[in-house]
Amino acid sequence: MWDKISRHFGKYPAQNRVAQLMFEHGLNVKNGTVYSGEISITDTALAKAADTDRRTVLATIATIGKKEELSIIFSRLQSTCSFKEVAPFMGWGVLEIIPDDVSGVGILTDTTRIIADAGISVRQAIVDDPDMHEDPRAFIITERPIPGALLPKIKAVKGVKGVVIY
Description:
Shape: elongated
Radius of gyration: 19 Å
CATH architecture of the largest domain: 2-Layer Sandwich
CATH topology of the largest domain: Alpha-Beta Plaits
CATH class of the largest domain: Alpha Beta
Strand content: 15-25%
Oligomer: single chain
Strand order of the largest sheet: 5-6-4-7
Number of helices: 8
Low-confidence stretches: none
CATH superfamily of the largest domain: ACT domain
Number of strands: 7
Distance between the termini: 30 Å
Largest sheet: 4 strands, antiparallel
Number of domains: 2
Structural class: alpha+beta
Mean pLDDT: 94
């Protein structure tokens, strides 16, 4: 999927870096301004995060505005709150799934079925996009910690290479 976007920035690696950062963080563009939800992100802040200058950020925004495909994509992005890091402090569980094949089908479904059968509710599931992450993982945040007794069942799910419980 990233290939579909990055081809618009082929000659401009710094703009590509800015666009990728925006995409990864779900930053959207409306009327030439970058937002996270309804919060406006300054060109300077974005430039610093992308290790570039304001002119490159402005050029990236202009490129997005000129290309219909990019404009549609970047106007609809949304940032997502991840509970992964705060879950242990909330008394919730975090299960990290390491797939053996990122295109495997049913890993999330089969894993959440095992969790549900144990009477544990899933609060959130986040899966890394294989086009954006070199080593994608799935994270399942549960209403309470996952008991160790479920590990063998989860490890036996087709396509699961490894499991980490936080």
